Amino acid sequence: MRQVHLAAAVVAGSFLMACASVPPTADIAQAEVAVKEAQKEGAAQSSPLALRMAQDKLRLARELADKGEMVGSRRNAQQAEVDALVAAAEARRNEASEALEALEASVRTLEEEIQHDAR
Amino acid sequence: MTRVEHFAVTLSALTCVALWIGCASPTPLVVEQTRQSYETAAAETDTARHAAVQLYEAEKVVVRLESEAEEGSSEAKLDHLAYLAQRRIELARIETERAVTRERVKELSKRRDALLLEARTREAKAARGMAAAEAQEAERARREAEAAMQRAKQLERELKDLEARRTAEGLQLTMRGVLFAFDSDELQPGARTSLERIAEFLNGYPNQAVSVDGHTDSVGDETYNQSLSERRARSTADYLVAQGVARSRISVHGHGESQPVAPNTNEAGRQKNRRVEILLKDRGAT
């Protein structure tokens, strides 16, 4: 009975060790790419909150990896990536909204001009 | 195994079962909420249409969250997966908003192009309308000028009948023939038609001075002929005034028998000399 317990503890422990000891390099790299992409889309102006969250979590992911806290590091890296994706998407959406507003203004002006001419 | 030991084993088994039930069922609230968010987003037509990929990515995370919950993963892990799922759902929503906005931009671009075309067409039409009005005005002016010229030509043709003659002083119209009865200053009916035409002609040049000169033949007393020529000139001038020629333009002169245009030795010559000349003075000569 005691041997079985020990064996189970060793298996579970080694499994946990494996998970916990490998740094989440791929997740951090993906988060870095996403943050850069968001910056390129102009998220710093257009969607500053989501971008800041992504940057903070990415930094935290690196710090935790250095400390050997791999689970926390991986989760922060993964969240940093989706935050950055949201920031980039918001930036693109806002750009489209601005284009629409400009277009609406120009159409309004044209309509007014034509109505004015028609009189 | 003692009774106490037996009790302890039973208790721990029951605890395990209770814990197991607690973990597996009911499903944690965060999992239900995440699934609910996903279903709400997926049910929207626009999202399904514009953000199919983002929805698919979101659902993958939701499914993983549900299976981790089944396996009794830690609350921290479930919260983490729920966060990822919520962000993926948000991505689908944002992408949908962008796609809808871009569709509206496309529609509005068409509308703007149509408006631009309309505005340009209107401008062109207005320009054409103005050009047409100008052309009409020019045509009207041309016709008026034409009509005035025709009228002037007509008058000049009529004046030829009146022996119009260009002199250094201006245009001289000579009225000959039976203008007056013998020894009378009263105009004969036949002379009136000619004078009316002359009056019309003179009225066409309202700013030019008119000189009316009476002449006689040499029959009779010279002083008397002088007086007769003056009376005839005056009578002619009066008639012109009655036809609308301003009196201030007209000067009246009698020359008696002093300026014959033909010999007084025969009747034909004498008739030529019994005349009234009307001079439309050139501007420089006034």
CATH class of the domain at 165-286 in chain B: Alpha Beta
Task: Please provide the count of β strands of chain A.
Answer: 0
Sequence stretches where pLDDT stays below 50 over 5 or more residues of chain B:
none
CATH topology title of the domain at 165-286 in chain B: 60s Ribosomal Protein L30, Chain: A
Give the H and E element order of chain A. HHHHH
Largest sheet of chain B: 5 strands, mixed
Widest beta sheet: strand line-up of chain B: 1-2-5-3-4
Number of strands of chain B: 5
CA distance, first residue to last residue of chain A: 99 Å
Report the uncertain regions of chain A.
Answer: 13-18
Q: Strand content of the residues of chain B, in percent? A: 5-15%
Descriptive notes:
- The complex is a heterodimer of chains A (119) and B (286).
- Chain A has one domain.
- In chain A, 92% of the residues lie in helices and 0% in strands.
- Chain A is built from 5 helices and no strands.
- Chain A has helices at residues 2-21, 25-40, 43-46, 48-67, 70-118.
- The termini of chain A are far apart.
- The model of chain A is unreliable at 13-18 (pLDDT under 50).
- A 5-stranded mixed beta sheet of chain B has the order 1-2-5-3-4.
- Chain B is an alpha+beta fold.
- In chain B, α4 (52-70) packs antiparallel against α5, α5 (75-161) runs antiparallel to α6 and α6 packs across α7 (222-242).
- Among the domains of chain B are: 24-98, no CATH class; 165-286, 60s Ribosomal Protein L30, Chain: A, CATH 3.30.1330.
- The mean pLDDT of chain B is 84.
- Chain A binds chain B through residues 75, 78-79, 82-83, 85-86, 89-90, 92-93, 96-97, 99-100, 103-104, 106-107, 110-111, 113-114, 117-118, and chain B through 76, 80, 83-84, 87-88, 90-91, 94-95, 97-98, 101-102, 104-105, 108-109, 111-112, 115-116, 118-119, 122, 126.
